[in-house]
Specification:
The protein is mainly alpha-helical and about 100 residues long. The chain contains three helices and two strands, in the order αααββ. Strands 1-2 form a two-stranded antiparallel sheet. The longest helix is centred in the middle third of the chain and has 22 residues.
Length: about 100
């Protein structure tokens, strides 16, 4: 059984920038404990004899295509109609201070 307490929920809420009421904290302690317990059960399964696979379909292959240019370079046209461009790049408003 994992240890998820109110203090852990409060820390997770702060890191996630979520406002959580006292009632929600109680519910989250219970729900997150269930999630962590399920993860522990999954981790305890012995998979030593299981071969790694990339698909559940036997002998499946990832479809591939030729790496070929399919469009002409119109960079200058696109930059010309951009609201703001400098030195060959789009200039956008700062999103992170």
């Amino acid at each position: 059984m994992s240890i998820i307490d109110t203090k852990t929920v409060e820390k997770l809420a702060k890191l996630s920038r979520l406002k959580v009421t006292e009632e929600e904290k109680t519910i989250l302690v219970h729900e997150l404990t269930k999630v962590m317990d399920m993860a522990a059960k999954v981790q305890s399964v012995n998979t030593d004899a299981v071969q790694p696979m990339t698909s559940v379909i036997e002998n499946a292959q990832t479809p591939e295509r030729d790496d070929a240019v399919s469009e002409e370079n119109r960079r200058e046209e696109y930059l010309a109609i951009a609201p703001k461009a400098e030195m060959g790049f789009y200039v956008v408003p700062r999103s992170v201070e």
